[in-house]
Amino acid sequence: MSCSLFEFCRLQEFKTVRHFLFRNEKSEPVEEKNQTEYKHLMRTSKGGIGLKISFALQVTDDAGGQGEPWLQDCVVSLSPCADLLVVAREQKAAFLSAKWRTDDSGREEMTLGVSWTGTLSTEEGGSACVCIFTSCLNTFFRSSTGRPDWTCVVVGFTSGYVRFYTESGVLLLAQLLHEDPVLRLKCRTYEIPRHPGVTEQHEELSILYSAAMVTIDGFSLFQSLRACRNQAARGTAASLLTLLLLGIMTLCVFDQMKNASILGGFNASVKGSPPAMSQYVTVGSGPYTGFYYAIEGSSQPLLSHVAMAVASKLTSALFSAASGWLGWNKNKNEEEAPQKQKPKVEPATPLSIRFGLPDSRRHGESICLSPCNTLAGVTDDFGRVTLLDLARGIAIRMWKGYRDAQLGWLQVPEERSERDFSPSASLPRRHALFLVIYAPRRGILEVWAMQQGPRVGAFTVGKHCRLLYAGYRLMGVNSVTSQGWQLHTQQVCLLDPITGVLRTVNIPFHLALSDKKSERAKDMHLVKKLTTLLRSRDIELDILESEARSILLDIKHPAVKKQALESLLSNKNTPVSCLVNITRALDDTLKRQEPEEVDAELLQLCSSQLKLLQLYTDIQQLHSAADVEETDSLEGIEEELSRVAPTLQRYAQFTPRHSVSFAQDSPDSPLPAQAFLSQLECTEDEEVKVIRRSETEWNQLGNFLFWSCLCGKSPLHKVCYTLQQAGISPQQLLSLLLSVWLHREKELLQKPEENVRNLHRLLVALSNMKGAVEESWDPQSISPWWQQVRTTCVQSHNAAAALLAALVAHRAAKASITSRADSKFQSEWEAVSLELEQWVVCVRQLEDVLVLQTLLLVPPPPGATGGATVQCSIKTLLEGGTGGIADSVSKWVFRQDISPERLKEILQKRENKELLLAVCQRFPHSLSPDFLFAHCCWEYVVQWNKDPEEGRYLCWSVEHLKMVSSPHIQQGVCTMMWSTFIAKRLSAATFLMEKVGKAPKDRLCRRDVGMGDKAMTSFLGCCVQLLNILMEADSAVEEVSAPELSIEEAWSGAEGPRCSLPAGPAPLPVSIPATCCYDLQCQGEEIDTLPKFRTKT
């Protein structure tokens, strides 16, 4: 309910734009350049009519480098719909168009990316662009999205030329209207009159020079640009202006007589009807502010002679451009001749000043017109911001300390819902006006209420930002096409060149209501008072409850009352009893009112929060109850528990202990009522839906609901009945139950039998709820209810808790299927279904995972390399493919620092290693000796590649490879090792020995090979052994059949990649220097190159 800065767009490739605009150029110091421009403008102001109007689109931002401002040397303009940004400097320009992309969280966001970069067309000798204007244009055929059909960019140059471009950089029109530099471009678009009697303003484009001003009728210009665009077959357009014009106005009779008396004296004549005239306001020096009037239908050339001349020139330019596009004027010399000759410029008629605000010392820099055309903000060189009343021609307010300020306006309509029941609902909607001031010297953005209102918002932003305020909307819209059309435009945007973020200001309407009698202002004061009351800690509970209830009932507006209630419910210091009493009092008050006066959303919020608070209180009371239900025996599961009990005990022994944590993060800490309310919401069907946010909050809610039941301290049937009556779906309750069961595995393993009984009773109670297991479920198909339990167990890394949950669910599912079969067939045959087969496979897989995880949890011996413990689950093993199990065990062998000989003795049952043998027995195919040695070989060579100084890793890798009995696997692993890790290092070593001619020094070995001289000696010896293994395996491949890669039946559903170990012959990528080459296919020859691999130590 307060001011806020909202990020709605990000700029991409902003560094690319800076590099393009400042490429191969040396930027002069900012201070020196500002002084040069100031002197030039002062010299210009001495001639003509003495006006100095600043460049509205020149602002300060980063210049050549990261820490220097560069955007101040550029001209920037943003289209009203914020879908096109133009950045230009001298003859170069970059166009950034709107694009939509998906961020990391999956949310769609708008970005501005570079769509065109290039050099703007200029005449011979070159000229710099001084102002750019972007405006969205609309055709008669409106798009269904309410967006503009195309955009046009209008650029003014120091040569006096004004050029029109499409957003793809195609030149549409070029016209020389005056030979002085263009200072500003200003546009006025059609606005729907909010009140009857207001003069309808037509579209108009104004071009300001140092001593002249040209206006172009918007309708004629729009038709010409649309014709040029159709000829060019382009799709977008934009335009840029920077001049203040108030449009056509009509004086009242009194003002007409007053002006006639002042201008004509006592004998002045007064016409019967007040004349229509256009008003222009300028700022500069001599006078500081000037007011000009051009009477419609008089001899003033601004709207007659000049407009006719401009229309004629636009027609000729259109004809010339269209003829070129259509293939006419084939002669190249005839095309270049008109370009060299400057077009004739029609002379302008002087426009005298009517009145102004004289201030000889003050120099106006910029002026910004309000959307209602009644106020304007003016900045000057004294660091002041002056507010002008344009109707009376006076200054009504001034702010100090805003040097180099940038201005913008925001017009906020009143919310519709607040006046629907008021007697004045048929009147036009009220609009609040706010002035936005950006002070770059202080890096602050302020929002002020008009006209004498306070500051309603202030934001700390960067010192190099840019405030973009268009002051106009779509061109080509009239009173017919504007009916019922919602324009999606941004009034004020703040561009941060450091982060490339575009932000807009959101202002609620009620901030303009500064009257002490305003109900909204009073309500906001009560909200602040309630916030202060909730923050105070030294207050008694009865006083807190009474004052909070009084404040909440005194608030009038439903939206503010809803905000206050939500703030109260989210406060952690307020007890539950206080929340219940205050919410019930508000609910009773709303129910006593007339139905048509009650806000439905507020009443729904009170009812839903009362229901949730009552549920929270009931669960708390059940957990603190002393009556505990009797537990039943579990026939069938006891045998399963006794069978896996030794593995569970060993698993619990190796399970790591919890680290130090804060008390509020402990699972045993009570769940606050505010956290409970934030995770549940009531639907329109009077059901309760659990909102899943973070994993921690989900586990906390599960602990609050079910942990006491699992420990046998609460009547679980009453808890389940209470949750069922509240309307929570059984599927969400099942997910919460499994979450707390898997999360608190260590506590559950202390008393597994008791906890398993309680879990079984809870699972049966949830299964009997309405909507859990479908009544039409066929036991021969898979039940979604039991599939949810299996999916949770399959994905869990807590192997012991998942196995116990699977055993309990298997028994419960079997009992349910048996009861259904008995009710249908009433036979003595045991029911067999696909559901039970799925449970048998899941239990077998979980038992395998438990044994494997127990092995992986064995801590490494002191002094070993160690590393992180691998966490496995059914899902990770299936996704790891056929070689995932052997890969996990090979990592464990490396962590345990087990030598190849010792591993061979373990596998041959010569050493008592029950865990490893148990794992190998459960995975006879995946952990066959050849596959395990091959994976250990690969793991050690990978670790050696990370640290080549550890030559022992490579030696053990070769030793593991020797243990492999299959020559096919030996050849495949050898080939992979050679091509991946050995070839490059061996090539570098042999080249170094050839270059030096003797044993190289340690420094040379580290530089060329990446290891010391001692490590290289061990490396070359391992290479000799690897080549011998490779040659022997290659000769024995043809004599032995390739091994079959098989996997256990329970793990046949592996979805990951196949085992990377090749089982067949593979090509030998042996590529070493000539001194190390040998022919592996030769028969019986000795390898005479081995001495060359030895170096002196």
TrEMBL record:
<feature type="domain" description="Rab3-GAP regulatory subunit N-terminal">
    <location>
        <begin position="70"/>
        <end position="237"/>
    </location>
</feature>
<feature type="domain" description="Rab3GAP regulatory subunit C-terminal">
    <location>
        <begin position="913"/>
        <end position="1057"/>
    </location>
</feature>
<feature type="domain" description="Rab3-GAP regulatory subunit N-terminal">
    <location>
        <begin position="245"/>
        <end position="468"/>
    </location>
</feature>
<dbReference type="InterPro" id="IPR032839">
    <property type="entry name" value="RAB3GAP_N"/>
</dbReference>
<dbReference type="Pfam" id="PF14656">
    <property type="entry name" value="RAB3GAP2_C"/>
</dbReference>
<comment type="similarity">
    <text>Belongs to the Rab3-GAP regulatory subunit family.</text>
</comment>
<dbReference type="GO" id="GO:0005096">
    <property type="term" value="F:GTPase activator activity"/>
</dbReference>
<keyword id="KW-0963">Cytoplasm</keyword>
<dbReference type="Pfam" id="PF14655">
    <property type="entry name" value="RAB3GAP2_N"/>
</dbReference>
<protein>
    <submittedName>
        <fullName>RAB3 GTPase activating protein subunit 2 (non-catalytic)</fullName>
    </submittedName>
</protein>
<dbReference type="InterPro" id="IPR026059">
    <property type="entry name" value="Rab3GAP2"/>
</dbReference>
<dbReference type="InterPro" id="IPR029257">
    <property type="entry name" value="RAB3GAP2_C"/>
</dbReference>
<keyword id="KW-0343">GTPase activation</keyword>
<dbReference type="GO" id="GO:0005737">
    <property type="term" value="C:cytoplasm"/>
</dbReference>
